[in-house]
Amino acid sequence: MKALAWCVLPLMFACTEVHRIEHEMIGAERYFFVSVDGSGAVLEVSSIHETDSTTEVIFPVEGDTEEVFIVGLAGAQLLKLDERFDAARAPQIRLQTPPAAGSLFLAGDDASLRTKLPEDAKILQAASGAEASSGERAAIAAAVTVELPIRLGLCADDHPMRLVPYGASPELLAELTDPKDSTLLRVAPGNHGALLLTETTLYAVKRGEAIDLQSPGSVIPASALGTEVRFTSLARDNLSYGVENQNQYLLGGVLDGAPAVWRLAFDAAGVRVMFLYPVATPPMPGAIQDVMFDGQNIAVAVGDHGTVFTAENADDPFGLVDTPSGAEGSIRRAAASHILTQPHAISGDEKKLYLGYAWAGYWDVLEMRERLNSIVASTDGDELWVAGEGGYFGRILDSIWSEPELPYPPELAPCGVREDTTGHILIDDPMIGAAIDGAFVYLQPQSCSALLRVRRRDLCVSAIEDAPPIRLGGERTTVGYGGDEVLIGGARGLLLTVDR
């Protein structure tokens, strides 16, 4: 290590140190000077200007108590910080003080991430070239952050995914003229195919095949279950995935003006209704709006006028439980949160998320900025996501609520708008559905041909598509998932799946 320092007198007559460092002695891509006072506090950070063979900076030093350190950052260290590190933009790397780790900055299609200093960053005393002590390293690391240029788009270590038709064609009900018969409200994967729900009909389809509209095992019209029946919701039990002989589902809706829930079976012979649950009479007529099984396979149904019902066992009636305070309108969504102390999550017409025990009528409430369309949660209870109107989403991670900013990649520009000041892509389309697995959260904008994939550990976003994303006319309507399957449903019986 060769480090030279001397004092020059600029016009203001302040003593200024000049340091020269040979590149090969440090082996880093970027170098910085860090000025530290006698108490160890960082005073200033300066980027070093590079020449062909040496690195040079004129750096002011105020008084004898100030010490200067050289910080070198290597490419391998920066990739460890974030695998999206854009080496082509290495000259844009900055050290910043005071620290603000975890902040994302976007300017047009360029993005930078503020993160911590690498633990193995090279830190040398400028005057002697000696390694900084552990105390000096800790003080500098605590006082600065790295502003790291990153690439937006496909997350670097992930295998690309694409959307493909689930059945024989993308639109399985294109020949039906009434949207009530062909617009999918819910989709649910199973061991023997997928179930597709519209307002008037429940369909079953096998992978790669068309729907046999004449087969009783493939089609259950609402009219077959009563004179005034309308379907609204569908859910599969949590114990069925991969279990050949257990394929139980809940079907929710309205029967003769009253809330109704049916039990379904779906196996190699097709789909069939097993029985109609007895449902407690609510104070006012209305429909079931959503159904779900929690982590213990207890059935929960929610509906109009803030109604919540539960059935602990398969043959139990659905009993009415206390309405959450403030949920007097329709409760539209229900999901298993898998949180030990709050196993159920529901949301309604009001901009609120309720977490609690449905069977006890006990709820905690979180205020949302938009009405929610979807609630999904990891099975370990550590992470829950919500998605709703206006491109809104948020998450609970380790019991902490946040509304993270997602860095949408440039290829999603046709599905969004550019923010005037930064050029950042904003998607303000309603998020009509979501799914979650061990590594990712999937969000579906209503009018975008692409499915958004968000990597849970670092919020890296990429587009899942079968062609460059385009803005549609609101053709996406629902997302369903189970096991390793993610399904997207839409108008005219559109049914796509994620090909991994």
Q: What does this molecule look like?
A:
The chain has 500 residues and is mainly β. It folds into two domains: 3-150, no CATH class; 162-499, Methylamine Dehydrogenase, Chain H (7 Propeller). The protein is built from four helices and 42 strands. The strands form eleven sheets. It has a four-stranded antiparallel beta sheet with strand order 1-2-6-5. A four-stranded antiparallel beta sheet has the order 4-3-7-11. β5 (49-50) and β6 form a beta hairpin.
The level-1 CATH class of the largest domain: Mainly Beta
Number of helices in the DSSP assignment: 4
Tally of distinct domains: 2
Biggest sheet statistics: 4 strands, antiparallel
Which class best fits the helix and strand makeup? mainly beta
Helix content: under 10%
| CATH fourth-tier homologous superfamily of the largest domain | YVTN repeat-like/Quinoprotein amine dehydrogenase
What fold name stands as the CATH topology of the largest domain? Methylamine Dehydrogenase, Chain H
Estimate the strand proportion. over 45%
Report the average pLDDT across residues: 84
Give the termini separation.
50 Å
Task: Kindly report the spatial arrangement of strands forming the biggest sheet.
Answer: 1-2-6-5
Evaluate the radius of gyration.
Answer: 29 Å
Q: In terms of per-residue confidence, which ranges show pLDDT below 50 for 5 or more consecutive residues? A: 1-16, 21-25, 49-58
